[in-house]
Amino acid sequence: MVIKVRRTACQGAISRRRGRRVLRRSLNDLHEELRMLIPGGRRLSSEELLSLTADYIMFLRSKVKVLRAIAMFYMP
């Protein structure tokens, strides 16, 4: 048998705040991790970091294309 417990408005608000806090904390952790991954990311503002991240992703994609082309050239 399942018993449903009704939440009060206060309990719902507390739960939402905890959820936001956990989300904010995890976003901050991801942001710090991104700062460590991107060359020179530690000294940049958030906007600059995200812009540089997009540029870095494009750079890595083009590098993969070039390396694949080189690999295909040397395959028998």
UniProtKB/TrEMBL annotation:
Keyword annotations from UniProtKB, A to Z: Transcription, Transcription regulation
This protein's record includes keyword rRNA-binding: no
UniProt keyword Transcription regulation, yes or no: yes
Start and end residues of each BHLH domain: 11-60
Pfam families membership: HLH (PF00010)
Domain of life, per lineage: Eukaryota
GO molecular function, one term: protein dimerization activity
InterPro entries per the UniProt record, alphabetical: bHLH_dom, HLH_DNA-bd_sf, IBH1-like
Record-level GO BP terms: regulation of DNA-templated transcription
Signal peptide (UniProt feature, chain positions): none
Protein family: Belongs to the bHLH protein family.
Name of the protein in question: BHLH domain-containing protein
Species the sequence originates in: Acorus gramineus (Dwarf sweet flag)
Phylogenetic lineage: Eukaryota, Viridiplantae, Streptophyta, Embryophyta, Tracheophyta
